[in-house]
Here is the input.
Amino acid sequence: MDVKARMQDLSGSRVAIAVAALALTASVWGVATLTDSDSAPRQDIAHGQGSAAGGTGGDGSHGGDGAQGGDGGTQQGGIPDGIAHASESGGNAANITIDDGPDPTWTPKVLDVLKRHGVKATFCMIGPQAKAHPDLVKQVVAAGHRLCDHTVDHDTSMDKKPVAYQEKQILDAKKMIEDAAGGAKVLYYRAPGGSFTPDSRRIAAANGLRPLGWNVDSKDFDKPGTATIVATVKKEMRLGPTILFHDGGGDRQQTVEALDQVLTWLKDQGRPTGFPVQSTP
Here is the structure.
């Protein structure tokens, strides 16, 4: 082969090598791009699984800790600011929580049902309601139940309000409830409609209140019928241990009847009841 032919052959080889190198670079870049784009969905899938103990929050959070599945932190006094779902009684225990009272008609009926079943519950009270009915708050405490701060105005949009507003809603309600209780402490804070923020959780925990979520919304507030409320609870118990009922906000006869049936069912299922965790993550 003459020199000219050798040069042409060498030039062709260099072009082929360059083309191959470019193709390999493009392939590596493409794999990296696919890997990066896939990483976010994988994180979301893991994020949505929740913890075994706390379950998946019907309040929009996941597991036992943190808003939207975050780990949360621990404030002065040892109260975590993660949203609690798990039960102090552990295992397959259920937590009964009662919102929006106290109500002079329905709170006593709820207390009667709980007493008949030997069950303790957590009452999430609205500040002015507690102030207006201190006798009911004292009855709740005397029966061995726990108190939860459910704010002053039950503003479900408070997560969009200034931090100072959130703080006032939480701390003013806490004072109203504790004054009405005659010395008993409020141990939890439940945001109206689950409208937690990192700031509201921090404020609550710093003042001794564990943010409290729920796993099972009984939908009793909408008064769909006693049988429907009971069926909803049975269906959703797989999500976790904390059940939401109401003793305020209107006629709660269906709630009283459904609570009675749910507590009977839980006993038949061998499921004890307890209080939500307060100081443990």
About this structure: Residues 99 and 246 are 5 Å apart (CA to CA). Strands lie at 94-101, 122-125, 146-149, 186-189, 210-211, 216-217, 242-246, 273-274. Helices lie at 3-47, 106-117, 127-132, 134-142, 163-181, 198-206, 226-236, 253-268.
